[in-house]
Amino acid sequence: MSKPLKIVVLAKQVPDTRNVGKDAMKADGTVNRAALPAIFNPEDLNALEQALILKDMREGSTVQVLTMGPPRAADILRDAMFRGADGGILLTDRKFAGADTLATSYALSRALVKINPDIIVAGRQAIDGDTAQVGPQVAEKLGLPQVTYAEEIVSLSDDNGEIVIKRRLDHGVEIVSSSLPLVVTVNGSAAECRPQHAKRVMKYKYAKTPSELQEADSDYMNSLCARKEYLNIQEWSVADVDADDNQLGLAGSPTKVKQIENVVFQAKEAKRLTAADNDINDLMVELIVSHTLG
Amino acid sequence: MNNIFVYCEMEGGKIADVSLELMTKGRELADTLGCELEAVVIGNNLEGVDKELARYGADTIWTAEGKELDPYRTLPHSAILCGLFKEEKPQIALMGATPIGRDLGPRVSSALHSGLTADCTSLVIGGHKDNRSGKEYENLLYQIRPAFGGNIIATIINPDCRPQMATVREGVMKKEEAAKPGKGTVKAIDWKKYVNDTDFAVKIIERQMEERKINVKGAPIIIAGGYGMGSKDGFKQLFELADVIGGEVGASRAAVDAGFADHARQIGQTGVTVRPKLYIACGISGQIQHTAGMDGSSMIISINTDPEAPINKIADYAITGDVNDVIPKMIKYYKQNSK
Fold first, then answer.
1. Do B260 and B185 belong to one domain?
2. B103: how many CB neighbours lie within 10 A of its CB?
3. Is B203's CB within 8 Å of A176's CB?
């Protein structure tokens, strides 16, 4: 009988930068974050699916989702539970704020030391930063090997000694094997995440973090969560993960933002043409004469 | 000491284009700073790379050679780079924002606790004054990149940690041999002292790399189609025009997502960045994510039914009309006038 796996998915709640509407920019040209819906980072959903596939392969395995963010990031933990995760951990503390990828990775690695998983699965990158750095940096902090750009977990040996993973690169594929524990980052080209399951939504819809419970201030909710262990989303602060303040947040971030410029199209007078024959003819003649063509 | 280092990626037995582009930029930065430019190549059969890198301005070429080092694997390459950087203390380290550079860079930056900025579109040397401490810095690397889905451009600095690390996508920087070749001194890295057996924990079982067939990036003329082309069939006339005037066909993300064109043709923030002498944007509205990848084109012609399409703001010629009408006319009048 194969040993069950303790699987952790790293996930992030991100503003949906793909659907930047007209109200996404304020009149002063700054980004209006409030106008952007907060979503489950798309590639982290691909990662969750790979984790759930692994769980299906090994009876008794558990999938925990770990996220760092503000209190409302608990939304994605519930979403993950509706889709098949067993539980969630929200790493939240003002001291984490302003972190670059390195300080973020440090904080996550502290939480992971506490969890001690067999495998850590994360999305390749988050759409608000597109850096793809946190996965490898977490791996380095934990001293674990990494497999990035994963598209599919091909197999896992019976003794959990060897995992085989297909990587999707820009110009090809690579099949690699590794021992566990391991950090895997998953591409958007991997299998889509399974949808929320109605029964799971019923089961987990009242899952709450301690702060949310406090805010709800409801005897019913309190007794419900006290009776049902699985409804408790864990909430960890800096103290809970025994992290060094100097390596957190702004202070722990080697990179600093010197300047932010909002993208404004430079107005340049375009020569206006119509689709009429003489317009196109003149244009082609001009391009040929100027040696732009031919 | 405190020089600029470029990690040079090997691709099919040659130095990857993106690495040569970084050498070109690295040479420029080194001249600004008055320091030297050093290249690091890790792989197997590295014969001849030193000559090429010297032409691109390398003063020193560090080589780590061994059959275990090819193809690229994370742990041995990062162990070698970390070991070398600890001894040589570069002030700046650059690598390609490729599957290799984006796998290696964060690992190295984490181990050295140095800052890394991904996917920079511009690298410039400049000063900085920290408002809180009042401390002034000279000659920092400004790492400039779009963020937040391309809605903002951020300038990132690493005031206190070294090396200042940055990755840059292929095609973003120009590739040009140095006006004066570098010294080209070759130094072999005694890499086995940096690498442990456990660094080979990940094994490559199988590898299938495709030849790059579509080369949008290198094309001097690009005819790009957007979602407005309507279908895969609609793209056919773009290929026809490309054939007649000698160009390559590109596509916007929307067109690629809709299945009108192959991903290899995608231009923009999540695709390739191009700077052709002529860019013809057909049925492309011109979202910033797209224009970020083509606004360096020498000349831009847009064809769009919407006279207010954002693309027209960066176009040199804005043709208001239906592509199905305009493209055949372009082909016709090019043929009529070109001989």
1. no
2. 26
3. yes
pLDDT digit string, tens, across residues B13-50: 899 999 999 999 999 999 999 999 999 999 999 999 99
Same-domain status, B248 and B133:
no
**Does residue B301 sit in the same domain as residue B188?**
no
Question: What's the CATH class of domain A6-247?
Answer: alpha beta
Lookup result for tokens 């732009």: A292
Identity at B95, one-letter amino acid code: M
- Cβ-defined contact of B156 to A258 (cutoff 8 Å): yes
| B148: in domain | yes
Structure tokens at A68: 């760092």
β-strands A62-68, A6-11: how paired?
Answer: parallel
Provide the ipTM. 0.87
Q: How many CB pairs under 8 A join A and B?
A: 242
Give the tens place of pLDDT for each residue, B142-186. Answer: 999 887 766 678 899 999 999 999 999 887 788 889 999 999 999
Structural domain of B299:
221-337
Cis preceding linkage at B146, omega within 30? no
Name residue B221's beta-bridge partners: B278
User: Which residues of B are less than 8 Å from A145 in CB distance?
Assistant: 74-75, 201-202
Q: Quick check: A288 and B338 CB within 8 A? A: yes
User: Domain check: are B185 and B253 in the same one?
Assistant: no
Question: Would you say residue A245 has pLDDT above 80?
Answer: yes
Q: Are residues B108 and B185 in the same domain?
A: yes
Expressed in angstroms, the distance from the first to the final Cα of chain A is 70
B214 found inside a domain: no
The CATH number linked to B316 is 3.40.50.1220
Burial of B20 (0-12, 13-18, 19+ CB in 10 A): buried
Token pair listed for B281: 């944007």
Q: Is B66 on the interface with A (CB under 8 A)?
A: no
pLDDT at A242: 96
Computed over its alpha carbons, how large is the radius of gyration of chain B? Answer: 22
Q: What is the mean pLDDT of residues B241-259?
A: 90
Least confident among A290-294, B166-170, B253-257 = A290-294
Instruction: Note the pLDDT of residue A265.
Output: 44
